[in-house]
């Protein structure tokens, strides 16, 4: 049976009120261009005839008919479906693919078998360190350093003989940290899928002034 015709038969039934065999919505954050596998807990599944993965627009991505082991995959998506575990792998995922993905089963009744909230984000760029130096003695100085990531900046003031401060700023999913250990100032810029840093040595700044 054609995929489009199967969708018309089942879509109204599948978006109706359902019970659930999972405990909570899973939240996943992935990097743009990567792949992510959405699992179903097969040990908790009741008997079913058909399983459907759909997105939050109620568009069917995969339909699996258990009795005939027939799988219909929408050509709108780049996915793999495992007929044994019923997992769905989203490939080369883009930010427009962010959203809710639900596995629904039906047999004697309709149930949600899995639900995932997927967020697709880009990796962070390298942070940028800027500084200015004030000499207070021979080979001793105070350094004002700023650490920038994207459109965010944090700053710190460090003494070449006492370098132990830490500045932390959270901007949504982004984390910008400026800290000093011994005489090394480290700027860390990260999000849930990536991490980059830049460093500068304070004693070098003092002696080069």
UniProtKB/TrEMBL annotation:
Keywords, comma-separated and alphabetical: Glycoprotein, Membrane, Signal
Cited InterPro entries: CD2/SLAM_rcpt, Ig-like_dom_sf, Ig-like_fold, Ig_sub, Ig_V-set
The species this protein was found in: Cyprinus carpio (Common carp)
Compartments it resides in: Membrane
Alphabetized PANTHER family for the sequence: NATURAL KILLER CELL RECEPTOR 2B4, SIGNALING LYMPHOCYTIC ACTIVATION MOLECULE
Domain of life: Eukaryota
Protein name: Immunoglobulin domain-containing protein
Span of domain Immunoglobulin: 25-121
Chief localisation class: membrane
Record-linked SMART domains: IG
GO CC terms: membrane
Record flagged with keyword Membrane: yes
Residues of the signal peptide: 1-20
């Amino acid at each position: 049976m054609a995929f489009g015709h199967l969708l018309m038969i089942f879509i109204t039934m599948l978006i109706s009120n359902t019970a659930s065999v999972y405990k909570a919505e899973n939240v996943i954050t992935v990097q743009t261009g990567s792949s992510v596998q959405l699992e179903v807990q097969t040990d908790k599944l009741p008997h079913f005839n058909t399983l459907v993965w759909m997105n939050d627009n109620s568009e069917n991505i995969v339909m699996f008919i258990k009795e005939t082991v027939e799988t219909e995959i929408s050509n709108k998506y780049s996915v793999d479906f495992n007929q044994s575990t019923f997992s769905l792998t989203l490939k080369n995922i883009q930010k427009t693919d962010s959203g809710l993905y639900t596995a629904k089963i039906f047999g004697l009744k309709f149930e949600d078998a899995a639900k995932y909230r997927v967020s697709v984000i880009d990796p962070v760029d390298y942070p940028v360190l800027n500084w200015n130096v004030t000499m207070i003695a021979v080979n001793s100085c105070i350094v004002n350093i700023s650490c920038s990531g994207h459109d965010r900046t944090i700053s710190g003031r460090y003494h070449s003989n006492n370098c132990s401060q830490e500045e932390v700023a959270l901007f949504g999913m982004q984390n910008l940290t400026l800290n000093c250990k011994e005489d090394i100032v480290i700027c860390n810029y990260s999000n849930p899928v990536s991490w980059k840093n830049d460093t500068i040595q304070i004693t070098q700044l003092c002696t080069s002034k």
